[in-house]
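User: Here's a chain of 146 residues. Predict its fold as tokens.
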Amino acid sequence: MNWLVYLSGEIHSDWRAQIATGAEHHKLPVSFCSAVTDHDASDAAGDVLGAETENFWRDHKSSKVNSIRTKSLINQCDIAVVRFGEKYKQWNAAFDAGQLAAIGTPYITLHDADIIHPLKEVDAAAMAWAQTPEQVVEILRYVTTA
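Assistant: Prediction complete.
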């Protein structure tokens, strides 16, 4: 079986690449997918539907267009990794975790210890909490090859 792993969350570090490199190193039977990680492209996803004078409506349209991709990939994935970074609040990642929990898809949270409290409900529904991409790779290694 080739596992589809959805990578959700913060876009300002190379955690996705670290996990992909680790999985490749161990020759894990996994493929990765993700929301659009180019911030400007994501913000502009709805611009094709016409210009808006208020940021709320531009964001509203773009979020709906982006959700076509995220909903489809979340529904297709076998497991997900939901990353919460230290610099920004990733409300979209929390929303993804809620969707994953609602449909019963297992997910791993990836974040530092200093945000355990605000993520207690998200972590409670997760199958594991990792603090490093290397820990995620080891979990993927175990569940896909044990």
